[in-house]
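User: Some background: our group keeps a shared notebook of sequences we're curious about, and every so often someone picks one and asks for a predicted structure to add to the entry. Today it's my turn. The entry only has the sequence so far, pasted here. Could you supply the structure so I can complete it?
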Amino acid sequence: MPRPFAAFVATLLFSVPLFTTNAIATEMATPIGIEAGDPFPRWELDDQHGKTHQLPGQSTEAIVFSRSKQADESLSPVLDDVVGARLIDGTVVYLSDISRMPGLISRLFALPALRDRRYPVVLIREEGVSEPLVTETDCLVLYRIERGTVVGREDLCSEEDVRNAF
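Assistant: Of course. Here's the predicted structure to add to the notebook entry:
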């Protein structure tokens, strides 16, 4: 009888470190992205009208990032309502990753729709550029910026989140 119990204990002892190692490896493989204290990437990108923007700009206080069509469609009107003029003057910048969208679709549908907005939408068109900007599915991400450095990050997943953030 002691032998099966010993085999069971040995199995447990050897599998626990293996499980822990796998959990750590999985956690390390998960992208963390930009956090408070990190510099925001310096990019030169065009908006929906072809105007070039330096990110972050000297007056940039916040960058709202979107990778999701659903988040953009549902939350950008609320953002415009709440932030309004700050989107136009550049203290708050709306940044959208459209790199996964086929070129024909973006030219025929997305860009004309974006051109109807009264504020600039800075566009990421090349795949992989937005890698450091990790997002939750169907959420916007608010990066608070001071002198080019991220001082805060929030996921904006609902209208209430957008209203409370500003």
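Suggested note for the entry: The radius of gyration is 22 Å. The chain is about 40% helix and 25% strand.
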